[in-house]
Amino acid sequence: MKEYVKIIRFDNEGFYCKPYNSPVYYHSLKFINYEVTNLEATDVYVKKTDFIRPENNYGWNECFVFLEKYDKKLLLKDGALAMKRFDKKNIAYLKNEGQTIWVRNNAHIGKGYSYVSEYITYLEHEGESYEQFDYIGHFAHYYWVKMKIDLALQRIKLGERHLGYVPEWLSECYILEHQVRQFEFIDTEKETSEI
User: What's the whole-model pTM score?
Assistant: First the structure.
């Protein structure tokens, strides 16, 4: 186990935490109360009640970050993070004491291979109970699931080996405010377009 892991965020305000959803920032993708413990186990199902959608809940103050590495092409003029390309690159270290973080619900083998892909509901009909399975939908891999930091690092390593690069969904994490308060700050630098 690595004692400390590197956390990276592009933002002029640093590791500033804000609610997941607020009148200003709205994110529609849900969290799934499911912890991945096996990187090879995809297409599992959960109960519908395992879905969490934080609504203006300050218990969900967060910081979107990258764990250990990121694809520098994301910051190019036509990249997914082009709006952040001139923001400060903030680096901090988090003590890895078996902590759990939120990662995208996407296996390292490629976009669209979700850890959780279905949910179960129970229907009552004429005194009988029936199970019904429904697919989360096309964007299931963008939802969030829980994972221990060591497993998340292994997932990044396997994904980079398999895909040949580190896509945003592979190393992006959602860190809660109580974890941000544990950061040890090392360096801040300006990211430029000369990537």
Answer: 0.87
Residue 25 exposure: Cα atoms within 13 Å on the Cβ side: 14
Query: Are the C-beta atoms of residues 68 and 2 closer than 8 Å to each other?
Result: no
Token representation of residue 171: 């190393």
If we measure between CA atoms, which residue out of 95, 80, 68 comes closest to residue 8? 68
* pLDDT tens-digit profile, the chain (195 residues): 778 999 999 999 999 888 776 555 556 688 999 999 999 999 999 999 999 887 656 567 888 999 999 999 988 888 888 888 899 999 999 999 889 999 999 999 988 899 999 999 888 888 888 888 899 988 899 999 999 999 999 999 999 999 999 999 999 999 999 999 999 976 544 444 333
